[in-house]
Amino acid sequence: MRRVNVAVPPPYDVTIGAGAGALAELSRVVGDRANVVVSQAAVFGAHGAALKAALGGSEPWVELVADGEDAKSFATVEGLCRTFADGGLPRGGVVVAFGGGVVGDTAGFAAAVYHRGVAVVQVPTTLLAQVDAAVGGKTAVNLPEGKNLVGAFHQPLGVVVDTSTLSTLPDAEYRSGLGEVAKYSLMPQGAAVAAVLDADLARVLARDPATLEGLVAECVEIKAAVVGADPEERTGARATLNFGHTFGHALETVAGYTHSHGEAVAVGLVFATHLARSLDRVDDAAVARTEDVLTSLGLPISVGQPEEIGLSGVGASELLDVMHRDKKASGGLTFVLPGPAGLESVDDPPASALEAAMRAVGVPASGGGG
Ligand code: NAD
Ligand code: GLY
Fold first, then answer.
1. Which residues partner with 209 through β-bridges?
2. Best mutation site among 14, 37, 43, 230 for ligand 1, i.e. most ligand atoms within 8 A of its Cβ?
3. CA–centroid distance, residue 300 to ligand 2 (Å)
4. What distance in angstroms lies between residue 365's CA and the mean position of ligand 1's atoms?
5. How far out from the chain centre does Cα 25 lie?
6. What is the pLDDT along the chain (370 residues), one digit of tens a residue?
7. Would you give the end-to-end CA distance of the chain in angstroms?
8. pTM of the predicted model, to two decimals?
């Protein structure tokens, strides 16, 4: 079992283990407080018995939310808050978010606003949520105008990770999490993550729970340190976690969410590294390393991959339009790029560098919005 502390006020632990012993940590975090479990049908169907045992064996109070981005809505949060009120969840109660990022974001947001804030414990069951979404206190819902536009910072009481829950995760969802793992391994502080991938790639791809305990823990070490340094994304430190995401988000939007998030981030990492190369911030070896890591994890390195959903006709102008609208942009176009001083936000790179990076990921230099 690994334990990583997140040094925000108040600090909390992320406990990472492989198997039933890991979930047992949940009863220590929740204690004897009234609690409600928020989950989804697929998650609770596969792992509800283990969660129930972890909470002490009696029948838990469970509320299921729907699947997918559409469920990240005010309607879902309102529904949760009303069931919390109907069921009498007190101010001292705890919301247990048992699922992937959709459950974590909606249950976390409901916990942030119900009674002006009740505690939440995150129990993530996707690789993406274990290495990223469950740690750091970001909660959100979507609006028709954009993704994650409304939310709150609401740090959890604790995060409890059981890597054996990943055995039932659909392949595409697992690959999506690997995109974030690749991001950590390519960050300047990513040596320990890269070492696990170098030493144990086959076991990572086979989802060996013990190997994943180490891998998830090393990713969480990085996220916890960044969140501790900049809990509410005010200094720029936390924004470095968006490495690969400016292009990745644009690709997701233009493609209509046919790529998984991690696949889009993978292409975004290649784009960012080529952009950094064009700006003489990194050398050819950095580009080669990025492409090698992603390929070894079965992730795409161009917009033409994977073949069944590849966007070989996608246009540069369409992607640039979406990137200009990125809510994180500080006016013009902002990218998190590697360089001699580590990851930094770079504003408005020259058109020639953008065109080179577009070409490198298979987008025509001056595409017409295909
Ligand atoms: P998800 O929550 O949509 O889960 C994917 C699917 O897998 C769902 O159908 C779910 O029911 C199922 N599932 C989950 N765990 C399972 C398991 N162990 N076995 C079988 N099925 C399982 O996807 P996600 O990738 O975890 O989360 C994506 C969301 O996370 C996005 O909305 C994104 O905006 C958000 N996110 C939030 C943060 C943050 O810091 N708060 C960070 C990154 C992403
Ligand atoms: N997923 C990026 C962050 O938590 O800041």
1. none
2. 43
3. 22
4. 34
5. 23
6. 999 999 999 999 999 999 878 999 999 999 999 999 999 999 999 999 999 999 988 899 999 999 999 999 999 999 999 999 999 999 999 999 999 999 999 999 999 999 999 999 999 999 999 999 999 999 999 998 888 999 999 999 999 999 999 999 999 999 999 999 999 999 999 999 999 999 999 999 999 999 999 999 999 999 999 999 999 999 999 999 999 999 999 998 887 777 789 999 999 999 999 999 999 999 999 999 999 999 999 999 999 876 655 565 678 888 998 888 765 555 689 999 999 999 999 999 999 999 999 999 998 755 444 3
7. 49
8. 0.96
CB-based pocket (< 6 A), ligand 1:
40, 42-43, 46, 67, 69, 72, 99-103, 105, 125-126, 128-129, 132-133, 136, 138, 148, 165-166, 168-169, 173, 176, 261
Instruction: Give the β-pairing of 94-99 and 62-64.
Output: unpaired
Give CA separation, 306 vs 275, 309, 310, in Å.
Answer: 22, 6, 5
The residue whose CA is least distant from atom 3 of ligand 2 is: 241
Residues 6+ apart with CB under 8 A from 335: 246, 247, 272, 275, 345, 346, 349
CA-wise closest residue to 124 among 78, 160, 92: 160
Question: Is the dihedral angle over the CA atoms 356, 362, 365, 370 positive or is it negative?
Answer: negative
CA nearest to 369, candidates 295, 323, 325, 314: 314
- Alpha helices, DSSP H only, in the chain? 20-23, 25-30, 41-54, 74-87, 101-113, 127-128, 171-186, 191-205, 209-229, 245-254, 261-278, 284-296, 316-325, 351-360
CA–centroid distance, 62 to ligand 2, in Å, is: 27
Q: Which ligand is nearest to the CA of 99?
A: 1
User: Pocket residues for ligand 2 (CB within 6 Å)?
Assistant: 132, 136, 138, 238, 241
Report the C-alpha gap between 27 and 9 in whole angstroms. 22
Distance in Å, CA 197 to ligand 2 centroid: 22
